[in-house]
Structure formats: structure tokens, C-alpha cells
Amino acid sequence: MKVIFFTSTDKIYAVGMANFPEDQDIEKFQWLFSGALYLQKEKISGPFVGPRKEMITPWSTNAVEITLNMGIPGVLRIEEFIPDNHQVSFDPMLNARYPVLDQSIYTIEKKPEPILEINNIAQYNEKEGLALSEEEITYLNSVSREIGRKLTDSEVFGFSQVNSEHCRHKIFNGTFILDGEEKALSLFDMIRKTSKTNPNFLVSAYKDNVAFIQGPVVEQFAPEYQEKADFFRIKAYENVISLKAETHNFPTTVEPFNGAATGSGGEIRDRLGGGKGSLPIAGTAVYMTSYPRLSPRPWEENITPRQWLYQSPEAILIKASNGASDFGNKFGQPLIC
């Protein structure tokens, strides 16, 4: 990959290409980057902060598509880098500090790690916090004996994820025996009992990743026949409304902006995938954190400040709100807070 550089007032654009560009392509790049100066250099001294080489950003994907539509061939990746005076804060999971920008900034030299076989699944479960039950550990040991080899770390990890409470609802949908008496309803059954007792306008629930309620009769102004050019007609038809609640607690706690953004994207995906599909109208967002304690409030307990494990409540409220709004804005769905 050949990397060429353009500079504007406050950033460097690094363009990775299959071949060196023609003069007319350079001019198109300069126009695209708002008059950025083309640097005829193999490398640029830093330091700079920019995306990790292992992760192509969504911005890069969009930028590359734009260049292809402009008729610039061979563009593989475009990323932005900003000068760093060691005072720039960045997320090390997404970005990295580069002492120099050269031809290797997009080259990944990591090799696959050797396969790790698990000698003791019970100990590995405790070490990695997989939350496997004794029954599941016994099952995995039996699988290992049956196939005649030790299980690998990826196999045990994969099993723990797909059989987690989050995916399977083993506890939430399990059978409860209290004082020797088996209960007729699970916790999930108790939740579903409300809709069974009073379905009202409910059309479908607990059958997919989205619920549907009966909507009003609406009027559609569209061509009478979709398969050919035709006159527009007004047609009344019944519709259903899709409803989805998406919790994204832990991702939003660790990385509020992208955690909330992907939470918003998840509920959009689930509503689009339910039934025969749907048209997104609007999303809502609710944020619940500890008291931010930015200034004295009569209802906030006066406690000694402490170091937050991931993000402070203030950071979560600001970044999560920005992230959910950002995804909705890019997709075209308004967010109602």
C-alpha cells in the first residue's frame, strides 16, 4: 500500500492507495479536503494522534466510497491524524499516538497467537470470570472426552457467551423450586402474564426482538401500482406500530459515546427486522446514573469524591446523549429525550 499525505490547518489526511495517484487525482483529493496541501513526502515527523491501524473507521469507509464515486481509483483507506502536544486526550481502544507518519501506518504485522488448550476448565472459568455453572463445566468436560482432545480458549469462551444469562435467560426463564414446591410460573412468565391478561391492542410480543401494537388507519399517497409509472392515489390501510426497548448499560458505562450509539443502532435494527419490516419514525433515550454532584444539591449526599472505575456520571450523561443523537442523526431517525 502506498500512503500519501495532505495537510490542512489542523490535521493530516493519510490516503492509502494501491498505486500512486495521477495528477488529476491529486487535484481531486485537494478539492475533497477543502484545499489541503499535498505533501510530497514519504513520512512526516510527529507526534500525531489518529485511529489505530488495526481498525478502519466508519469515517474512512464513507470517505473511500466518496473517492470512488469521484472516479479516483485504487483508494483503500483514508484517516485523519491531528498533531499531538501530549495534551490531547484520546481513547486508547480506538486511537493511538504515532511518533511519525510513514508508509507503515496501515501495515499490520501482528501474527495469530498460538492455540491455547484448556487443561482445567473449572480453574479457567474462575480465572476469566466466565460464570459457568457446575453443570456446564461437567458438560464441557464430557465434550472434551467425547472428541478426544482438550477444548481451546475460544471454544470455552464461545460456549460461555452463547449460553450466558443474557442470551439464554436460564434464570429468568427457568423453573423455580422453593421449599420443595415447583412454581408454575418463571420470572419471564410473570412478565408475560400482563400482556396475556390484558392484551388490549397488542399484536405480537415476546416472539421476536420487537413488539407490535395495533396502529391507526393511515392514508398513503403513492403510485397505485409500484411496478410501473402510475398516477398517485390516496389509499387507506391498517398498520401496526413496532416498539423496542434496548438496554445498553455496560457498553455505555465503559465507552459512553459509542456504547449509546450502538444501543440506538441495535433498536433500529431490531425494529427493521421484525415481521415484514418497518419504517423508523423516532427513538427515545433515558439515562440513569449516580448523582453527578457537580454542585451542591439538597437531595445529593455529600460524600468524598472518588475515582470512577470507567466514566464519571457527568461524562456518561454528556457523551451518551451525544452518541445516541449522533447515530440517530446519521441514520435519519430523530431522538426524543
Low-confidence stretches: none
Let me know the largest β-sheet.
6 strands, antiparallel
Give the terminus-to-terminus CA distance: 45 Å
Secondary-structure-based class equals alpha+beta
Strand content: 15-25%
* Shape summary: globular
Number of strands: 13
The order of strands across the largest sheet is 3-1-2-5-4-6
- Tell me the series of helices and strands, N- to C-terminal: EEHEEHEEHHHHEEHEEEHHEHE
- Mean pLDDT over all positions: 88
Q: How many discrete structural domains?
A: 4
**Rg from C-alpha positions?**
27 Å
Number of helices: 10
Helix content: 25-40%
Question: Can you characterise this structure?
Answer:
It is a single chain. The protein has 337 residues and is an alpha+beta fold. The chain has 4 domains: 100 residues, no CATH class; 48 residues, no CATH class; 45 residues, no CATH class; 88 residues, no CATH class. Helix content is 33%, strand content 22%. The protein has 10 helices and 13 strands. The strands form 4 sheets. The protein has a 6-stranded antiparallel sheet. Strands 9-10-11 form a 3-stranded antiparallel sheet, with no helix packed on it. The chain is globular. The protein starts with a strand and ends with a strand. The mean pLDDT is 88.
